[in-house]
Design a protein that fits this description.
This protein is of the alpha+beta class and about 150 residues long. It is built from four helices and seven strands, in the order βββββααβαβα. Strands 1-6-2-5-7 form a five-stranded antiparallel β-sheet. Bound molecules: zinc ion. Zinc ion binds next to α3.
């Protein structure tokens, strides 16, 4: 597990990630036929990338606000700040999501329409709520690399 603030730091390899997003104001999203309001705050979205360019290409896309909406998460990256990503090379998005099992699900079905295991792939990350120790350690390691 590594933490990256820029897609340039992300390996161009397949794997899974949790995108860290910050919403400054409430925002309505749709997940299939469901609608839900996301309150201002921090969120973690778990996804995976197995195509060309792997994790680096996918995270570069998430970090670019202007794009054609394709996934549920594209609604959110259009308005939220992306503060970084926890990246697990060769990892599994549902395993990352399960590791965040203590965090609330804001909108059922968001990001998980093709997943049979998870109620949603988006979690609210309440201010100060601890993440699993591997995640916290990855973030501390990234901070220590900053100039
Ligand atoms: Zn899942």
């Amino acid at each position: 597990m590594i933490f990256c603030v820029s897609a340039f730091d992300v390996p161009a390899a397949p794997g899974a990630y949790a995108l860290w997003l910050r919403l400054e104001a409430p925002f309505e999203v749709t997940a299939g036929k469901r609608k839900g309001i996301l309150l201002a705050g921090d969120y973690l979205y778990c996804g995976s990338a197995r195509g060309p360019g792997g994790l680096r290409a996918r995270l570069a896309r998430h970090m670019r606000p202007q794009k054609r909406a394709h996934w549920h998460i594209d609604q959110l990256t259009a308005v939220a700040s992306v503060l970084g990503a926890f990246v697990h090379e060769d990892g599994d998005e549902c395993a990352l999501n399960a590791a965040l099992g203590d965090l609330p699900i804001p909108v059922a079905g968001f990001g998980s329409s093709d997943c049979r295991r998870c109620a949603a792939h988006l979690r609210l990350w309440p201010r100060g709520a601890p993440l699993p120790s591997r995640w916290e350690n990855a973030r501390k390691a990234a901070e220590s690399r900053l100039p």
